[in-house]
Write a structure and sequence with these properties.
This protein is of the alpha/beta class and 397 residues long. The chain folds into two domains: 227 residues, TIM Barrel, CATH 3.20.20; 106 residues, no CATH class. Helix content is 39%, strand content 11%. It has 16 helices and ten strands. The strands form two sheets. The chain has an eight-stranded parallel β-barrel with strand order 1-2-3-4-5-6-7-8, surrounded by five helices. A two-stranded antiparallel ribbon has the order 9-10. Helix 1 links the parallel strand 1 and strand 2. 44% of the residues are buried.
Length: 397
């Protein structure tokens, strides 16, 4: 087993996990030419000296570092004169800082890196949304060697096919994105564009609110989501996967160490959400509280806050999962069946999920809610300049 761990650029993290099978770390500058897959406002600040120093700490432990250049949208800037040359300069500067490999989502950038640096390993980001062997093979022919799976990480026919095709498969373990998320494309584009120069135009990513509302309406989605339990890593190893990615480069050193140890131990006793991202409830609740304090659209914000408040105390009791949980899912054709038709994750949720101490059957989802789309502008930084003053019931200081 190899772990691939997000880093917050705290050198102490490298020391703390030195006894774990962490093969690689990954991260990037909050803002870069291509963007790095996370909005800058959630990431730690890092300068070039700190970046270089952290990579030296990683290399002293015999580990590798992959730089995230994994945006899936460049805003058409790639067609501009000199863009590719600027990209190659950025790649060269990162290599000079000590970077060992890259995480990339756009085929043209994979090709550009491989053409200039054919020996440098390239992982295909989850932002590329690989969902078939044929799709992965295009990237492999362009020079990539690793396929990172997030949305497809419970699709075992796909996983086995990727292994047969010669790909090194890396499974993202601890994201809580909902199954077949309809907001995913918008979210990835948002993260991509806002981490590029001049793109930091928002303080909250609206698709997280939309995703969170899906969970608020149907807590069964806490179980059908795309995370992986530490106890189920062996199911992937049997399919030929030995590389597991733990995200959280915006988290504390203590949290990253805690999550990495759980996956190393292949077991976790307690609330599974302690080692998962679970941004869908906490982040929207905080953002809506900010809007409420500003007096923004109370007839929309108020009911949404109340709906999220109903999920303010959620536990997934990891020890309560039935034996063979993932094996059952692996044998189910989830891509062509609805959750209502199958019912398995709903039955598991009843056993393991507790909302304010009660099972989902005793949870009362909110009634009809106002459409949140009217809040889009409120999450932009321009809102502070009065761009929302014409919206009904809106007041921005």
């Amino acid at each position: 087993m190899e772990l691939v761990l997000g880093t917050n650029f705290d050198d102490t993290l490298v020391e703390r996990v030195s006894d774990l099978p962490v093969r690689s770390f990954f991260a990037g500058f909050p803002v870069s030419l291509t963007g790095a897959g996370r909005p800058p406002y959630i990431l730690p600040e890092i300068d070039r000296d700190g970046f270089r120093r952290h990579l030296k700490a990683i290399h002293r432990q015999g580990r590798e570092f992959y730089a995230t250049l994994n945006s899936n949208d460049l805003g058409l800037k790639e067609y501009g004169s000199g863009y590719l040359d600027a990209f190659q300069r950025e790649v060269g500067e990162l290599l000079d800082l000590g970077v060992d490999g890259f995480v990339v989502a756009i085929p043209a950038l994979v090709q550009a890196i491989h053409r200039a640096h054919p020996s440098i390993p390239i992982s295909v980001s989850s932002f590329a949304r690989i969902r078939s062997v044929s799709q992965a093979e295009y990237f492999l022919r362009l020079g990539a060697d690793t396929i990172i799976l997030e949305e497809g990480n419970r699709n075992f026919p796909l996983i086995r096919g990727l292994v047969r095709a010669g790909a090194r498969v890396e499974v993202l373990t601890n994201q809580t994105c909902i199954r077949e998320c309809p907001y995913r494309a918008h979210h990835l584009n948002t993260s991509s564009l806002c981490s590029q120069p001049g793109g930091d135009l928002l303080w909250f990513e609206f698709p997280i609110l939309e995703c969170g509302l899906e969970v608020v309406r149907d807590p069964r989605q806490l179980i059908s989501s795309i995370w992986v339990r530490p106890e189920d890593l062996s199911t992937y190893e049997e399919a030929g996967v030995y590389r597991f990615k733990i995200s959280g480069r915006n988290r504390t050193t203590e949290w990253l160490d805690h999550a990495a140890r759980a996956y190393t131990d292949r077991k976790y006793h307690g609330n599974l959400l302690d080692i998962l991202s679970f941004v869908q409830i906490k982040a929207p609740s905080k953002a809506l509280a900010t809007l409420a304090a500003q007096g923004v659209s109370p007839t929309v914000v108020g009911p949404l806050r109340e709906a999220f408040a109903g999920m303010d105390d959620v536990v997934i009791e990891n020890d309560a999962f039935p034996p063979g949980f993932l094996r059952h899912i692996a044998a189910t054709d989830c891509e062509s069946r609805s959750c209502d038709e199958c019912g398995y994750c709903g039955a598991v949720a009843e056993k393991v999920v507790r909302i304010r101490g009660r099972p989902p059957s005793e949870y009362r989802p909110p009634g009809p809610l106002p459409a949140p789309v009217g809040l889009l502008e409120a999450f932009g930084k321009s809102a502070a300049n009065g761009s929302l003053t014409e919206a009904p019931e809106t007041k921005v200081p």
